[in-house]
Amino acid sequence: MALESRVTLQVATYLATAALSDGAGRSNRAIGQELFISPATAARHVANILAKLGFSSRAQIAAWAAGEHLDLAGSRGRHRPHG
């Protein structure tokens, strides 16, 4: 399933990167600071991802992003999906 918004992909990728790097989840505030968006915008993107993919947790988003091979090594604020 595709996520069309560039920022939505960045949020999903950031959640996966954070989970893989230290196993910790990230708050909306942390996501916002990393991606230069407000915590409210981060919350909206997380909610949109959860709804669109039918998930109930950020861990599921992280696993999905890793499974979709999103660019987990990309530059901050400029994550792009492969292929």
Kindly describe this structure.
This protein has a single domain (6-67), classed as Arc Repressor Mutant, subunit A (Orthogonal Bundle), CATH 1.10.10. By secondary structure, the chain is mainly alpha-helical. Helix 1 (6-22) crosses helix 3 (39-53), helix 1 packs across helix 4 (58-67) and helix 2 packs across helix 3 (39-53). Mean pLDDT is 78; it is low at 75-83. The protein has helices spanning 6-22, 28-35, 39-53, 58-67.
Question: What is the fourth-level CATH superfamily?
Answer: Winged helix-like DNA-binding domain superfamily/Winged helix DNA-binding domain
Question: Which second-level CATH architecture applies?
Answer: Orthogonal Bundle
**Unreliable segments (pLDDT under 50, ≥5 consecutive)?**
75-83
Mean pLDDT: 78
Categorize the overall geometry.
globular
Q: Number of helix segments?
A: 4
